[in-house]
Amino acid sequence: MQMKNPIKIVTFGEVLMRLSPPDYRKLVQSDTLEYYFGGTEMNVAVSLSHFGLYTQQITNVSDDLVGDAAISVMRSHGIDVSKVNRVPHPLGLYFMETGSGMRASRIAYNRLHGAFAHIRPDMVDWERALMDADYLHWTGISPAISEGAYQTLRKGLEVANQLGVTVTADPAYRSNLWQYGRKGTEVLKELMHYSHILIGGVNEINEVLGTDFDHSKDGFISACKRLQSDCPNITKVFDKVRTGLSASWQKVYGQAWTGSEYILSEELEISQVVDRIGTGDAFAAGVIYGLIHFDDRDTLSYANAACALKHTIPGDSNLVSVEEVLEVMQGDTGGRIKR
Amino acid sequence: MQMKNPIKIVTFGEVLMRLSPPDYRKLVQSDTLEYYFGGTEMNVAVSLSHFGLYTQQITNVSDDLVGDAAISVMRSHGIDVSKVNRVPHPLGLYFMETGSGMRASRIAYNRLHGAFAHIRPDMVDWERALMDADYLHWTGISPAISEGAYQTLRKGLEVANQLGVTVTADPAYRSNLWQYGRKGTEVLKELMHYSHILIGGVNEINEVLGTDFDHSKDGFISACKRLQSDCPNITKVFDKVRTGLSASWQKVYGQAWTGSEYILSEELEISQVVDRIGTGDAFAAGVIYGLIHFDDRDTLSYANAACALKHTIPGDSNLVSVEEVLEVMQGDTGGRIKR
Amino acid sequence: MQMKNPIKIVTFGEVLMRLSPPDYRKLVQSDTLEYYFGGTEMNVAVSLSHFGLYTQQITNVSDDLVGDAAISVMRSHGIDVSKVNRVPHPLGLYFMETGSGMRASRIAYNRLHGAFAHIRPDMVDWERALMDADYLHWTGISPAISEGAYQTLRKGLEVANQLGVTVTADPAYRSNLWQYGRKGTEVLKELMHYSHILIGGVNEINEVLGTDFDHSKDGFISACKRLQSDCPNITKVFDKVRTGLSASWQKVYGQAWTGSEYILSEELEISQVVDRIGTGDAFAAGVIYGLIHFDDRDTLSYANAACALKHTIPGDSNLVSVEEVLEVMQGDTGGRIKR
Amino acid sequence: MQMKNPIKIVTFGEVLMRLSPPDYRKLVQSDTLEYYFGGTEMNVAVSLSHFGLYTQQITNVSDDLVGDAAISVMRSHGIDVSKVNRVPHPLGLYFMETGSGMRASRIAYNRLHGAFAHIRPDMVDWERALMDADYLHWTGISPAISEGAYQTLRKGLEVANQLGVTVTADPAYRSNLWQYGRKGTEVLKELMHYSHILIGGVNEINEVLGTDFDHSKDGFISACKRLQSDCPNITKVFDKVRTGLSASWQKVYGQAWTGSEYILSEELEISQVVDRIGTGDAFAAGVIYGLIHFDDRDTLSYANAACALKHTIPGDSNLVSVEEVLEVMQGDTGGRIKR
Amino acid sequence: MQMKNPIKIVTFGEVLMRLSPPDYRKLVQSDTLEYYFGGTEMNVAVSLSHFGLYTQQITNVSDDLVGDAAISVMRSHGIDVSKVNRVPHPLGLYFMETGSGMRASRIAYNRLHGAFAHIRPDMVDWERALMDADYLHWTGISPAISEGAYQTLRKGLEVANQLGVTVTADPAYRSNLWQYGRKGTEVLKELMHYSHILIGGVNEINEVLGTDFDHSKDGFISACKRLQSDCPNITKVFDKVRTGLSASWQKVYGQAWTGSEYILSEELEISQVVDRIGTGDAFAAGVIYGLIHFDDRDTLSYANAACALKHTIPGDSNLVSVEEVLEVMQGDTGGRIKR
Amino acid sequence: MQMKNPIKIVTFGEVLMRLSPPDYRKLVQSDTLEYYFGGTEMNVAVSLSHFGLYTQQITNVSDDLVGDAAISVMRSHGIDVSKVNRVPHPLGLYFMETGSGMRASRIAYNRLHGAFAHIRPDMVDWERALMDADYLHWTGISPAISEGAYQTLRKGLEVANQLGVTVTADPAYRSNLWQYGRKGTEVLKELMHYSHILIGGVNEINEVLGTDFDHSKDGFISACKRLQSDCPNITKVFDKVRTGLSASWQKVYGQAWTGSEYILSEELEISQVVDRIGTGDAFAAGVIYGLIHFDDRDTLSYANAACALKHTIPGDSNLVSVEEVLEVMQGDTGGRIKR
Asked: Least packed by Cβ within 10 Å: which of C26, D134, E73, F242?
């Protein structure tokens, strides 16, 4: 099947195991945990794979039974795992108590000494991986984990630029990471210079550039222009805007700067959130799929619909099909049963 | 108990097993499946049985461990299973991925070569079954399965008419069935001539009569009058009208044509749907219970309340009591705990 | 930890086991039951313990494997169980079918011959338990169970008054209890004379005093004044007001009478209720915590936020931290993930 | 189906709910409990119903949601529940921590104030129930619960004797019951006079008669003869002998006294016990089925095979078919898959 | 990884879904079912894939959500699914009540009108699939399903013989299949002429050739010689011999005829069977792996160890690694924990 | 309760979370994990607490939701957690695939950068903890984790020796730990000089002393004498000897050297292992309980019975009561139900 579809997207990032007590329980209230494998970049790969594209994840996983399971799950989604390294360090993981209503979800991480933190540039044959690739997707999480992860990513971005691969960037800044010595905003700014599509908005631009644009439409447009001025490779910006009425009730819409134009999508409302994790990654996957198949306006609308749908899917990754996204994009949101 | 209650309702139709991954998961995300036995006519029987009436289901089930379980479940609800045939064909079943929010539920059927598809008129002693019956309920699903199911149903309707049994009809047309050669609308129209109560509305009338009445109040009234003109046995029409805000949020109200009058019920809103399957069957059971105990206006109100309550019950069948329906019918919808 | 925190709250009441089928199922639809240990006074102790205070529960539990588990769960929450008696009678319990939407939850009790019903004054060394206590909390459930429970509680209240321990009272009247011979309202009125803080409102005052104040603001104020007139020990009244849109959608706010002033909190809305049991107890624990740490206005606001949060926690007891209540109290109700 | 089979067995006894943590867990280790409905006499009825006979249970169940579920489960097995009374007392229940290996199962009961304890002779129309019955089965548990249960049972036995119904007795003596005042052994001896078949052995005879026969073959024969001498109605004795290597590994064989002859069955070994509860009841049902269909030797062999098979079935009741028992009785114990 | 390992095994056969109640329950005792995807040939592919070989399955799966899950599971094991057809017929499935001790497992199939039954020769590009293959594995189940399945397999065997692909055959005869018209033994004999390795023994040879060799060592040797005489392509025979003490306790050993020599493996005992399904397929996969890596004696020993280990793995397929099989093959069967 | 029992045992060691797929599944076969908190020294504390002694654990746990749950579980068992430090590092954990039959369990650790690895001597007030203690228990795992853990333990042992606290040592050597630089055998030998009771045998003595005594009775005696010669504080040695027939079938007996005499216990057989983890810790707890209450011979017998019983309990810790151990010690191993 991969033969028939020449569009290839490479993702680079940590594969994380997520462990959650079921049914909104506190950890101490449950004797079992549900688990999923995800990670922001893998989530993008999974979604694109379910959209029918060829995806390949570059990462390290543990050389133990947990890593075996991670590989198996990636394979189940159709992701090419031939470039996944097995290393003698445990797989990163996190525990999440899922919130509800006004109670926020709470997360405890165990990742800073994990398999991915030990990745180094010489573990990845970027030339070979990107040779036949069309897109390389990265996020601000990876360079925040370790010096090796940063160096490996930078190397990959250099090769992508040499080979003409389009780079999509989701440079989210997480202040509680970045413990290995480097300054996050400097690194993210450097890496943005290798990137072509920003998946993010005013928050990300302000963090990367040290600016303080506001969240108005004008603020967004000004921020995008400033970003293009500072990082001339950037051609477009796709941003997801969320309003959280509660942990269980969310509204999302998208806005974009096409380089010349401001675009706004419809707003979609999810009154009974099943899982909020990975909704941004679902948006990112939607953007990439859209860039390949649609114009900018439909790309934004598709990405927003994909993001909304992810709120209805358990786990970290968006498992919906193109058909399902198109249905929502075309306004079929009433939940009729498809027989 | 059945001794004390001489009102007997006979239902004819397929018993289906439903298999669903839990918690809004996709099939591939779960290693277990929840299962229920249902089927549109059995759902009516189950609900009427929980309302305290005597019900008997005419059907075929498989002569294997699945059929054993189906019989056991029917019995647990108090349905008389003495007229259920055991045949050497697998029980029909379907898989459902339960939707949420804007994500629709999706169903995959495995029924067209099942136990019920092999029913034939000579397998059912209709005279004996209907001898002491007051109502016979059928739907448009049964004659859509196989020639044998159609012939068996027609025979039953003939006997019912001979014996003075009131026939309630829910002639829903499902285009993806009807693969055995007959034209659905013709068959349904024929069978409507044996029926006295239509549980359905403009959609069903248009399908059966080939008309194109609109969904306005006037359209409904005109359609009902036309139906009565074409099928003079029909005395009343009870219709459920649904508005789906999402798979998780639904609104329902009922309208009816009493032969001389248009009736409208209050609208009920379910903001957190537990299970949408069988809500139409819950309405049908409510209508039948109402016809026995109430005037037309209360019948409609009772049926609508029953339909709304089914959205809060897992599985295919409405397990609520008369008391619970009356509480909702009387406006007690605030969810106070009953100690 | 208990060393560092000299504030001690003693609670007296039955520990009840709760057994519920999962996922809104009827009992007959499930082959497993989820269980929790709770009981209105223990719920208060659990919540206060999670707020960091030192709590001790006075009760009887069964001298069998169920009692072992009850003790273990109390300990897990940090409750001092050194004053719990083990007796050769089964632990009280109840079954609950959890409602949803317009379907109410239904409860079946099995408690009137249980371990707690057999408590007698000579089983409790009240002097020792209250010697170093700051608060004693009771509810109207305990004296409704048995003569022994009533006598034991009255003895405790006497000792508390002698030792200067503040008494908080939640004198809810449950008409289906009180089967051992005494008249509930008389007993409750008697016990109110030993109490200082009423956690309740017009309903409770009307029941205790036999009055019929209405539910307006003025009615509330008049009722409070009358209560203070009749029971001069009472200094303050904290009341929770609930509006149930459905079993799944609730709104709560608090009002209080400080002895000189009427206070009203903001209203909080829970659109997807996880568990309604114990929300009043969560409010009571919030009041007690507030009385220790805040002024009356913040006490009311804290208690209301605690009550709202309990709707998001499975089980009978409120397991949230002070930090989580403060977040909601300060308006952070949008459900952002805490990483 | 019941029409075709005129053999009717009536059972009288308590319906008990059993609650167990799964997977050999202690109660405190699990947040869920598995539950079953059983009770020694109902277990006999369930097994006989699965053997194709018509069974009717005389009992009281609670008039609440637990009783609804008990009724539903009895119905699911095909038991006639038309003589079950609903009363405003909780259903009896017990908690069991399932043992394994050398760890014994432990049970905590909650039954002495339950629905069945409140049964009285005037609640049962014994004449009508036994009019068309062939067998009445009782055990020593029922008269141990309450004076009312004893009186009701004695009345039933009297009527059975008047109507010529064969009475099978399993007069197990449980010392921890019998708390209502009567002396167990006296009552059991009285009731044995109304009985025709003893399902039990030296232990039961010694308890009832106050003798001290030993457990040898000769002891068994002497005890049976003495029993027949004291209770001349007794015609036959069927006894199950168990050797417990551990909670997980059991051996069983049967011995019988036919009135003139000693019979011994083969011994069957269960090396991986799934559930030990109800194995004696499975033997009793096997005896009754055998008395109807076989000679004494095959009856004993059938009963022993049924008893062995019950060790492989979760729950209190033996759900195997006649065909499955015959397979084991004929030596097919190797566990080949039946496709 | 597939790049590094040029050994490719192609399997042809139905992918079946298996649905079982957990914990030795009868279907009616559980509200959930565990499910697995398997099928005798896929089981071989899964095991070989876990042994590190490149496997490809030729089959039809349903074009619905069940088929999606089947594909996903095959992928998760690393099976090449690029030659799997999606067709508009439901996936075959079966229900199994898992036996224990002397209670046999019972199975109910639903497969004769499924996706695989609709396979036809023109749906498979055998030349391309086998071009780079080393082994083709088939069993007697496939040609028993439908004429199309038979024709497709025969075509594949012809191509395999043309291309020099080694054919391994497990010609088990199941009398309850073969409903489409052909005589099973004739078909199997025809297909054996295209095969090189028989995985089976006296039973299979007697069925295929119509002989009646006995189960002694001499009988086995004579049968093998006769098979080689009748089907000259056959070079070796590998047979698994099972002794079932009960459903939970099994013993297995292997015997083989190398064309010139009789070989016998050690016997392995499994006293606590976890899952008996697929143990023969595990043996077959062990034979194929052994033929590639070992001499005949070690091949037999490896296959027997693999078969024994499968009894400890839930589900249809053997998920153990080469390392685990070698440990058992070398006598490490004491169950020490591997840290 | 702690008041009444002045015997206090202090344990020092890591609290580990264990995560396992249920029902002998491979990780990839399950979407849920069962979890327990344990760790070799905590297991000893839990068991002693269930034996009614006062226990206190010295450790670090994570300052997050996982650490909250660990504290809660320790409390539930009655362990004094007032000396547990909360630190900003994740709690150590391990994944285990539970073996069965000849398939060994496999474990993957994630502990070397966890909360406990960051413990330092200045975090523990050993004087206060040991002031009123009778026993201090340590194992060879703790000093293998980190320099800080080693230093902290050595400090504790020094203080114990100064205060006259009896030190019990289980100096198991795990070669895959000890990654921080020190040589395990040297450290263990040093720490043995502070210890009074060895819980271990020839393996441990050989590792610690660098000797090569054999596993005969004479070898054991000679090894014990040599140990006493090299470490004069050692007064007694208690050793557990295991024979693993398979992962599911184990035999255990104990031997001891009392300083002057060799003692041997009976052998106990567990034919259906529920959980093998923590069986050595159960033996250690049995030894400590025995030293307090029994002579050496009964101590050994009690410890062996405790060890055997642990094989029947899910999870890491032995939750049985003194009564249950005594039953087995006295030969009651047939698994009769305790009602």
From this structure: F242
pLDDT tier for residue B2 given thresholds of 50, 70 and 90: very low
Closest-CA residue of A relative to E69 is A76
Q: CA angle B238-B239-B242, nearest 5°?
A: 155
Which structure tokens are listed for E301? 């020993």
Q: Which residue of C has its CA nearest to B337?
A: C105
Tell me what the pLDDT averaged over chain E comes to.
95
Chain C contacts of F75, Cβ < 8 Å? 75-78
Interface with B, mutate which of F25, F31, F32 (most B CBs under 10 A): F31
Task: Using CA coordinates, name the residue in chain C closest to F79.
Answer: C75
- Per-residue pLDDT, B4: 45
Which pTM does this prediction carry? 0.95
Q: What is the pLDDT of residues F6-21, one digit of tens each?
A: 799 999 999 999 999 9
* Selected residue with higher pLDDT from E336 and E109: E109
Domain contains B2: no
Whether A270 maps to a domain, the answer reads yes
Does any domain span residue E31?
A: yes
How many independent structural domains does chain E possess? 1
Nearest in space to E287 (alpha carbons), one of E277, E301, E275, E276: E301
CATH number at residue C307: 3.40.1190.20
Query: Is residue A339 assigned to a domain?
Result: no
Please report the pLDDT score of residue F1 as a whole number: 36
Please check the confidence at residue C232 and state whether its pLDDT lies above 80: yes
Neighbours of chain E (3+ CB pairs under 8 A): A, B, C, D, F
Using the predicted structure, report yes or no on whether residue C18 has a pLDDT greater than 90.
yes
Q: Which domain holds residue F64?
A: 8-235
Q: What is the pLDDT of residues D271-310, one digit of tens each?
A: 999 999 999 999 999 999 999 999 999 999 999 999 999 9
- Which of E28, E100, E173, E243 is the best residue to mutate to test the D interface, defined by the most D CB atoms within 10 Å of its own CB? E100
From chain F, the residues in CB contact with E272 under 8 A are 100-101, 246, 248-249, 272
Q: What DSSP element (H or E) covers F49?
A: helix F40-50
What's the token pair of residue C141? Answer: 């459930």
D190-231 confidence digits (pLDDT tens): 999 999 999 999 999 999 999 999 999 999 999 999 999 999
Beta strands in chain F (DSSP E): 8-12, 16-20, 32-38, 54-62, 84-87, 93-97, 106-110, 135-139, 166-170, 197-199, 236-246, 249-257, 262-270
Q: Nearest C-alpha of chain B: how many angstroms from D44?
A: 18
Distance (Å, whole) CA E286 – CA E293: 10
Q: Which of B26, B102, B176 sits opposite A339 (nearest CB)?
A: B176
E101 in Cβ contact with E94 (< 8 Å): no
C-alpha to C-alpha distance for C311 and A23, rounded to whole angstroms: 13
- What values do phi and psi take at C318, rounded to 5? -90, 110
The residue-averaged pLDDT of E315-330 equals 96
Q: At CA B46, angle to CA B40 and CA B51, rounded to 5? A: 130
Q: Which two tokens stand for residue F26?
A: 């491979």
How would you classify the pairing of strands A93-97 and A16-20? parallel
